[in-house]
Structures
1.
Amino acid sequence: MARATQLIYLLLCFCSYALLSQGNNSSTDEHALLSFKFMLSSGQSSLLASWNMSSHYCSWPGVVCSSRHPDRVVALNLGSFNLSGHISPFLGNLSFLRKLVLCENQLIGQIPLELGHLGRLQVLNMSQNHLEGSIPKTLGGCRKLKKLDLHDNQLQGSFGSVYKGELNAQEGGSTNLVAVKVLKLQTPKALKSFTAECEALRNMRHRNLVKIHTICSSIDTMGNDFRAIVYDFMPNGSLESWLHPDINCLAEQRYLNLLERVTILLDVAYALDHLHCHGPEPVVHCDIKSSNVLLDADMVAHVGDFGLAKVLVQGSSLLQQSASSMGFRGTIGYAAPEYGAGNMVSTHGDIYSYGILVLETITGNRPTDSRYRQGLDLREHVDLSLHDRTMDAVDTRLLVDLENELHTIGDSSYNRKIDCIVSLLSLGVSCTQELPSQRMPTESIIKELLAIKDSLLREQRT
């Protein structure tokens, strides 16, 4: 029986190769998709019934093609398609593919080595199947890979074998869920400075910091240096994705209520307090922003991405000259104004970025929105609104939520929630003062947020 299965598998591989050999470059993607279908035992199921020559492959279920290159496949979203069988190695010919999702199916066999040819691949999710064998080392060739999910399979070996790292991603026959950030090695001293910083941060442990499992250092299939960081995977994504949901996404739009926003901001404040005051050495993150605040399964916030972090000397929070050659630190819109005058880093700079994060979380507006290119920035807009028209600056989704509750919670409770919003906006403005010395320290920020959260919880209990 096993030998018969093997012969059928080899026959399907031969048929797949024959398909590809008949086409030219313009039909490579179509042939790769048909090869994938033919190697599935459920290839004729209703979900893939339309995968045939009667329609263009870009219209097939689960297939997404590029807007710039209309005939090139950029995503395969085939999760929960009830697929069974082997994964065709010819998927490695989809050279424009950025996202491959095959989770929650009944796929068997090994992960094809050829997937390592997908140089543009950013997301690979093959979780919850029946895959076996070793995790291919060739995946190290996917230099742009950001998210890799292989949990709930029967894969052997370790994730570290892919990137020459140390993380054992195989426990009890099921791959741990991790996220991988692949570095773009563009600056001359990036390798030494990045490795030194990350090694220092690996010794820091806190509930609200993303756990770094390992730093991966290797050579990719092209002979180039390869560096990556392996983190705990955060299933609820970033704060940015909640504040600014993709309007083109068909999934249910996600929403954070006021208490949830305050709780997340408090988590980030705890993380900064630990970095600045309670670690082995004071650490300045240098890139606090909504995309670097990640949410776990319980919606606990974790600060991540320490690629620009700076360990301060002698525990001082005063401005210090950086020895790094990276120049300007931070992200436009979030970076403290003093960073634009020179490569100076301080804990005060993190407080400024945190204040912008507070304002973004309550207004629902990015600091780089086009509305702020006419002379006012996000901070100035909020500061002016606080004088007489505070609600004009608040996220409309929060306002709608409060208006809907007004009939049930009463005027007094409604007004207390408005007071909490005003306090949050005032906190953001206070943290973004022009002079670094006038910005609130983390201890005062935490005290203020705890009072706001306690007020909201009291309202919830009454």
Note: The chain is about 35% helix and 15% strand.
2.
Amino acid sequence: MAERAPFHPDDGRLRYVGLATVVFPDGREVLVTSSPVLRYDPNRTDIRESDRDSTWAGSITLVDKASTLDLFDAAPGLLRMPDGRASEFMATGGPQTSGCSGIGPAPFGPG
């Protein structure tokens, strides 16, 4: 069997892969695995402030496969990292797995 390519290529971009919490507009919370990536390079010196306001995108997947929640209903939702940082996002699919596009600064990476 051929070796499978890594899920995330080593492209040098800052990303987070791990557990997070999605907070729905009505306050419900659900545990997800999250895989967002920064869209810009924080080491560049010519970053405009507007670059920091639409900085991240990725995917989220419900941890509880028996959950009846639909991630698409988290639009806009809040993605909260284990360290407490959070940012709004728009869900782009559902119910169990969704793409997400960040609204505002990324809740991971350089603080």
Note: DSSP finds one helix and six strands in the chain.
3.
Amino acid sequence: MKSQIQMAYLHGENNNQEAIEKVNKTIIELIETSPLITVTENDEHVKIPYGNDGEFIIPIFTDKQELEKGLEYFRLNEMSENKVPKIVEIDYFKKIRDNPNFLGLLINIATVSYIISLNY
């Protein structure tokens, strides 16, 4: 997934929207078929505000190393309290996808992060 994210950024630099959409489709396929690492807080989704209208994203991580960097990011930003790693399937996000303020998943918050919408 990390290489796909890097490809999306490269296509973005070249303003190649068609290629970005193809990469996004590949990322979504990976998300749908792989276990995902996320964090919970008091057994709830961790929602990261995005914008000023109540919109939010939910962080996921591609691997244990990215999770550790993400947890450090939370600590540095004083957001680490009660964060618990959890391995989930895409169905875990099914209910929240109906929330109009949910913008998508934030992949690897502490490194080359990427937001992918699950509204397809």
Note: The two ends are 19 Å apart (CA to CA).
